[in-house]
Amino acid sequence: MEIIESAPQANGASEDSTRQALIATARRLFADEGIHATSIRRITAEAGASNQSAVHYHFENKLGLLRAVLDDINRQLEPLQAEAYAELEAVMRERIPTVTEIVSIGFAPYVYLFQQSHEGRLGLRVLSRLTWESGSEAQDLLLQKVRPYFLRLTPMFQAALPDKPTDVLDFQLYMAAANLIHGLSEITLLGREPDTPVAELYRDRPLELLVHFYSYISAGVAAPLVQPFAPQ
Question: What's the domain range around 96?
Answer without folding.
Answer: 72-222
